[in-house]
Amino acid sequence: MKKQQENFSNWVPGKMIIIPGILGLICLALGFIHWGFWIPAILFLLISGYFIIAWIIFSSRFGNLQDKIQELVVSHIDWKGNGKVLDIGCGNAPLTIKLAKKYPEAEIIGMDYWGKNWDYSMQFCTANAEIAGVEKQISFKQGSASRLPFEDASFDLVVSNLVFHEVQDVKDKRVSIQEALRVLKPGGVFVFQDLFLLTPYYGTPEALLNTIRQWGVSEVEFIRTCNEPFIPKLVKLPFMVGTLAIIRGVK
Ligand SMILES: C[S@@+](CC[C@H](N)C(=O)[O-])C[C@H]1O[C@@H](n2cnc3c(N)ncnc32)[C@H](O)[C@@H]1O
To answer: pLDDT grade, residue 3 (50/70/90)?
Structure first.
């Protein structure tokens, strides 16, 4: 019997390909009535084409870049493996499941707001955890990264991958970092990967680290993961993964 595969979905939502694709085709058709539609037709089709290529690069069936980027988070964790773990913005739980496999003694929670903008859901998370055989170790909870539904100092390890810049219910994207540190125990470990080199969101790395130190962490480090050689140039645009970095440390 064929082994069931987890569905981790793609960081490029289908609508980013389909909407410009349809608009491009409409403009193309209108181009036969008036030549002025040719330019928007070309632009829309180029955008759609770009996102098709990005989808292929990220996909587990082809470029597998999502998995490699999630592995970066795991490889930067320095933790013994006993205690409670939180994965903020877990999506369909690829990172949550990696952590469960690496730390079989840990109790892991994956949380996300699972909004309409993405093809992710708690049902997919539960099904993926079952397929991976780690369902007993993991539970899932809905909530927002800007206001985590957990008490202060609840977790021994807190991780997050490519989430904080997406949080829409607060203007200052740093609020979610502060919130993630709030639920971490003193002495607990954190590894956050996001578009931390996007200065309009986070300021300079130096200023960001100073702010984080003021929130009471004992160790913090900035790692430019966008320089990893396996990341293709084509997806190194600032809002893709061209501004990717890790902030890690100990509270
Ligand atoms: C690029 S996906 C990353 C998902 C997952 N961390 C991964 O590595 O595949 C961004 C995730 O952020 C989540 N997200 C967006 N806003 C959020 C919020 N306010 N609170 C929690 N999660 C949020 C989305 O639902 C989505 O799962």
So the answer is: confident
Tell me how long the chain is. 251
Ligand 1 contact via 9 beta carbon (within 6 Å):
no
The reply to whether the predicted model has a pTM over 0.70 is: yes
Residues 6+ apart with CB under 8 A from 244: 69, 162, 193, 194, 195, 196, 197, 224, 225, 226, 231
In whole angstroms, what is the distance from residue 22 CA to residue 19 CA?
5
Q: What would the pLDDT profile of 42-72 be if each residue is shown by its tens digit?
A: 999 999 999 999 999 999 999 999 999 999 9
- Tell which one of 58, 113, 146, 161 to mutate to probe ligand 1, the residue whose CB is within 8 A of the most ligand atoms: 113
Beginning with the edge strand found earlier in the chain, give each strand of the sheet holding 84-88 in spatial order: 138-142, 107-112, 84-88, 155-161, 184-194, 245-250, 219-223
Per-residue pLDDT reduced to its tens digit, 10-20: 999 999 999 99
Taking a C-beta distance cutoff of 8 angstroms, is the pair 118, 9 a contact? yes
Joined tokens for residue 249: 């440390």
> Could you give the CA distance from residue 179 to residue 228 in angstroms, rounded to a whole number?
28
Distance from the alpha carbon of residue 117 to the mean position of ligand 1, in angstroms = 10
Q: Which residue puts its alpha carbon closest to atom 4 of ligand 1?
A: 91
**Ligand 1 within 6 A of CB of 95:** yes
Q: What letter represents residue 62's amino acid?
A: F
Query: Ligand 1 centroid vs 90 CA: distance in angstroms?
Result: 6
